[in-house]
Structure formats: C-alpha cells, structure tokens
Amino acid sequence: MKKFAIKFIAFYQKYISILLPKSCRYYPTCSQYAIWEFQTNSFFSAFFATFMRILRCNQLFKGGINYPIIRKKFNSCFIFQKSDTKNVNFWFIPCQNSKFYVVKVLDKLKEKNKWNRCLCKKGCFLQHFCQSYFS
C-alpha cells in the first residue's frame, strides 16, 4: 500500500500539480512531505500525518519549514567503517527523545562522497551513517 501511495503522489506531482498554481505554504511541499512520510513511517501514521499537513496548508496557518518527524530507536553504530553515501537518502536530525526530523539528502552531497553523520543509541553525533536503518 505504501508503494501505491508513493506512486500515486508521484503521478500527482508529475501530471496534475503542474497544471495548478503553486500554493503550498510549507517547505517541503505537501506532496514531497507525503512521499517522505510514506518512505519512513508505517502506512497509517504516514496517511494521518499527510492528512493533517494538508489540512494545515491554507491561509489560516503561517506555513514555513515543517519536516516529517518519526520515532526511531538506534541500537548500534559502526564507527570508522567506510560507508557508501550513494545509498543514503535521509538524515535523521534529533528533535526530542527518540524523535527525529527526516531531512532529504541532496543529490549534490551524495555525489561528493564526503562525511556523513549517524546517531548512536545515546543520541550523540558520530562520523558514520548507520546504513542498516535506511534499507
């Protein structure tokens, strides 16, 4: 169901939204937010978060930057292990206890193959990305 939802949203972005005026009050746009939610959360929590985001996207709310928030527990990290940054799609930035903002990795950064960061169980920053959590 998640794949169907992502394909439906991609279809909307490619064929329908280009016909409509740009009116999203948030960054990332509501459709991109929905794709990130479906890629990182369960179907029902992603659907609910997307629905609530679309309800907030109007003139009554200020708008601004609103990244998806997920709950995730990091069990272990491998320090000083060489990683392939081309497979990394998202960064998890700490928000609260076991809650993280989901931020998309820019394609330019993937190509540079430079340093990435990960979060260990204690929430500290290390110089390696936990690849096992992004597959």
List keywords for this structure.
about 140 residues; alpha+beta; three-stranded antiparallel sheet; two-stranded parallel ribbon; about 35% helix; about 20% strand; globular
How would you characterize the overall build of this protein?
34% of the residues lie in helices and 18% in strands. It contains 4 helices and 7 strands, in the order H-E-H-H-E-E-E-E-H-E-E. It is an alpha+beta fold. Helix 1 packs antiparallel against helix 2 and helix 2 packs antiparallel against helix 3. The chain starts with a helix and ends in a 9-residue tail after the last strand. The protein is globular and about 45 Å long. Strand 6 and strand 7 form a beta hairpin. A 3-stranded antiparallel sheet has the order 3-5-4. A two-stranded parallel ribbon has the order 1-2. Strands 6-7 form a two-stranded antiparallel ribbon.
